[in-house]
Amino acid sequence: MKNISATLATVWRIASPYFRSEDKWAGRGLLAAVIVIELSLVAIDVLINQWQNRFFNALQERNWDSFVREIGIFTILAFCAIGLAVYQLYLNQWLQIRWRSWMTRHYLGEWLEGPNHYRMQLQGDAADNPDQRMTDDVKLFVERTLAIGIGLLSAVVTLASFVVILWGLSAAAPLHLFGKEFPIPGYLVWGALVYAILGTMITQWIGSPLVNLDFEQQQREADFRFNLVRVRENSEQIALMKGEPAERERLMHRFERVISNWYGIMSRTKRLTAFTQSYTQAAIIFPYILVSPAYFANKIQLGGLQQTASAFDSVRRSLSFFVSVYRVLAEWRAVVARLDGFEMSVVSSRHLAANPDSVRITASEGETIELEQLLVRLPHGDPVVAADAIAFRGGERTLIAGPSGSGKSTLFRAIAGIWPFGDGAITIPAGARLMMLPQRPYFPIGSLHAAVVYPSAPGTFDIEQVKQVLVDVGLAPLAGRLHDEGHWNRMLSLGEQQRLGIARALLLTPDYLFLDEATASLDEAAEAAVYKLLQERLPGTTIVSIGHRSTLAAFHRRRLNVEREAEGSRLSEGTLAPAE
Prior knowledge:
With 580 residues, this protein is of the alpha/beta class. It has 2 domains: 2-354, Up-down Bundle (ABC transporter transmembrane region fold); 360-574, 3-Layer(aba) Sandwich (Rossmann fold). It is built from 18 helices and 15 strands. The chain has helices at 2-15, 24-61, 64-111, 116-122, 130-172, 187-207, 210-233, 235-240, 244-296, 302-319, 321-324, 326-354, 408-416, 448-453, 463-472, 488-491, 494-508, 524-537; strands at residues 175-177, 180-182, 360-364, 368-377, 383-387, 390-393, 397-401, 422-429, 434-437, 446-447, 485-486, 512-516, 542-546, 558-564, 569-574. The strands form 3 sheets. Strands 3, 4, 5, 6, 7, 8, 9, 12, 13, 14 and 15 form an 11-stranded mixed sheet that branches. The longest helix is centred in the middle third of the chain and has 53 residues, at 244-296. The mean pLDDT is 86.
């Protein structure tokens, strides 16, 4: 019961925001319509149960007129049931797509709220494969929640309706054993209850491991799919390294984990199916065994026998709801756990940024970025790089140099506000526009125009302006391809990608431009041309570069050194070496 209460509380927390959202009236209306139709179908089941008594009595009595009348009544009930079932499915699917659309937009908004998506990765595997959470898991959550919720409601209403009928039939057809009559009030109801409770207990005992197995299966499937995507994204490097055998071995290892867990699901499902099928088949004959002695003792007619069997089966199915949907429940609980983990990870990453013990980003009225008593750490607490009383002044060009792995890129991430681990403060001028250019820039899949101006909308800049900036950075052949669609990170060389990154900076004209080895793939002449272009086009922009080439000194007025210490590294003032 404790697990059930916790699961239901989690489901309510995940599901209820939609029914309080801007789409709440449409969602509530569709849900109400689906529920009303379900209740109507239960009412039709009750009418058909009563119809069975009259119909089979007409057969037993060979009453033609009554037989024809009952056929007509059944036809009306059947057409009503068919129409209601069709529209219930239609409205249910309509509710599913609206609910799923809202949840997807909601999760995308939370995932891409600032650098949340990046911080969630830094915290480990609490929300691995967010793509699966927002596609498969959201879809399954909506489908399964509606199916289980409507099914449970139907079971409760059916139980309440047919218990009354079955209780009355128990009095009309008292229990007969060994030729003797035993007037036990509601014995048919008690028989259905005992049968369902035993079935539920055995089902839980056999099937409980399926919850963890389903959770693990989804995780392993997602891991396998993610690694397939990584191979596709890095196919060039793998081909150049002739790494196909190694990748095949790695992928097969992950697929074998999928298969091994699936065998566990197969084994457990086989046992569960063996019991549930036996339980269902035995339920067909069980009510006849209970009631047939009363029939042969002429206490009830054939119609009463059939009505009793039908009512007993309805009560039994209602009480056995847990048994019949156990496999779906196991999958649903695994989906709920995954969405809960995703939401908790979003909340945790948001709190991480607001934690007073993390790196503090504050706005100032000045014109410099200042680092005060800053100590950047790794997520597990080890120090990376320290800086104190360091300022980046407006219009200044600064070169940061130091050995690889000393924390230079992590320092840039802290300044950008996406790396919260550490202590101290970073003060940034209010309203200042910062731009970070990494060694490998990101370009969205789409038109080249959209890739160059990202993250701005394509209409932000005049197309002639975009063409000119491509010519300026040495990509004149691409100027005529702005409307071409493509995966530009795969289609262009790293040098061309870095030139596109510089073109993007020229268009966006940031106040502070941080270059993290953003020209390392260019030859020295091309790199010099790029820095001259930046000085000419962005005279008021503060440029901070990470680089290892001594030729970069000619394009910077100031040098900061990152020097390794006993624990981590430290950023300190240095002197510029003359250009070679």
